[in-house]
Design goal:
This protein is of the alpha+beta class. The protein has five helices and nine strands. α2 crosses α3 and α4 packs across α5.
């Protein structure tokens, strides 16, 4: 059932967060669905303000761990792994929450206190499966042709759109890094939406209004909005 799918990867059966299914798919790409496996519980003493987790989600209520910072508190807790779905925090079920909501809950946990996580790890399978051969008779027959790409959305149909320009791609990458710094999340689609909102704006005030109209649910702090505006400006001026 779709509710059992945690995330999908392209061309690898491993829980490789650099191979997550994204906005572009080629005709020869192979999709692996990673489904829910074993449940596990862990109690942790929060000894640092920063846990060292980067959280993302699959768009349908399954927030999972995309990255664990080396040397961080969570890195020392070996039971927690990349790909794990965070199901509950201190008994509160967070299934159905977006990744930024889960990240905020973890960030708001009081330092010096114990907290409990219930996690679901991806089912382990195909451990001996080798990467798919690159063979085929259509090496250039990709959906992405020229400056167009197939863009997938959680809501609404897939559409073929113009690919971001080189300047926009640099801005999107920088904004994605800012999202991780400020919110502990990585979301390239969210970063692209923010860059799009600021593309024709003349000052940070106009940009803040545009963000509030399109992404008001995030309640971004002013400092973050200003840094994003700066990143977009740096990209336009060729400083990135």
């Amino acid at each position: 059932p779709p509710s059992q799918i945690m995330f999908c990867t392209l061309n690898t059966h491993k829980a490789d967060m650099d191979k997550l299914l994204g906005a572009q798919i080629g005709l020869e790409d192979f999709i692996f669905a990673h489904i829910k496996g074993q449940r596990k519980e862990v109690e942790i003493l929060k000894t640092d303000d920063v846990l060292g987790l980067t959280i993302t989600d699959n768009g349908t209520g399954c927030a999972f761990i995309k990255r664990i910072k080396e040397g961080s508190l969570m890195d020392q807790t070996k039971i927690i792994c990349v790909g794990d779905h965070i199901e509950t925090i201190n008994g509160k079920n967070v299934s159905g929450c977006r990744h930024y909501e889960v990240a905020k809950m973890l960030k708001d946990l009081e330092k010096g206190q114990m907290f409990k996580l219930e996690l679901v790890e991806p089912m382990k399978a195909f451990e001996k499966l080798e990467p798919r051969s690159k063979g085929g008779t259509l090496p250039e027959a990709k959906i992405c042709r020229g400056r167009e790409t197939l863009r997938l959305r959680t809501k609404g149909p897939a559409t073929v759109e113009e690919m971001p320009t080189e300047v926009e791609e640099k801005a999107i990458k920088k904004v994605d890094e800012l999202l991780e710094t400020y919110m502990g999340i990585r979301d390239i689609e969210l970063a692209a939406t923010m860059v799009e909102a600021g593309k024709d704006k003349k000052n940070p005030d106009e940009f803040a209004v545009a963000l509030d109209e399109t992404l008001g649910d995030f309640a971004f702090p002013d400092e973050f909005v200003f840094d994003v505006w700066g990143a977009i400006g740096d990209a336009k001026q060729g400083r990135l």
